[in-house]
Amino acid sequence: MVEIIEDLKNGTLVPFLGMGVFRGVVAKDGTTIPHDSDSMILALNGGRAMSPRLMYEYSRAAMSLEQRKGRNFLVGMVNHIYTKEYDLPAVYELFKKIKPPFLIDTNLDDSGCKIYKGV
Questions:
Q1: Which of 39, 47, 69, 92 could lock 73 by a disulfide, CB 3.0 to 4.6 Å apart?
Q2: Could you report the per-residue pLDDT of 32-89, keeping only the tens digit for each?
Q3: What residues make up the domain containing 51?
Q4: pTM (predicted TM-score)
């Protein structure tokens, strides 16, 4: 573990973070933050499932919603999901202490930015 932390600190190991880091994260209002494709689709579509073809991956569902309801709807839903107040997931807390020089974060929130706040 010490070697992994050193590799993270010196940049020879670059973390790649995806939606899974939000598994089990609950916002202050009691809603869960999406942590996989299905939970993201349900969050974008008001808790309702979509057709099996669209439930396959959230990018398909998002494109369908954008075509039907417009980009502003989709942007509004994503903002609604990720502007809720929630505690920083554990992996971000760890990286906040380590402060790796590089971090690839594919999530749609600002948790990755909070790691480097004040740096």
A1: 69
A2: 999 999 999 999 999 999 999 999 999 999 999 999 999 999 999 999 999 999 999 9
A3: 2-112
A4: 0.85
**Separation CA 57–CA 87 (nearest Å):** 26
DSSP secondary structure, 8-74, as one string:
HHHTSS--EE-GGGGTT-BBTTSPBPP-SHHHHHHHHTTT----HHHHT-HHHHHHHHHHHH-HHHH
Place of tokens 């590799």: 7
Neighbours of 29 (CB within 10 A): 8
For residue 32, list its beta bridge partners.
Answer: 26
Q: Is residue 17 part of a domain?
A: yes
Q: How many domains does the chain have?
A: 1
In a domain, 62, yes or no: yes
User: Residues 78, 19: contact at Cβ < 8 Å?
Assistant: no
Q: How many CB atoms lie within 10 A of CB 49?
A: 12
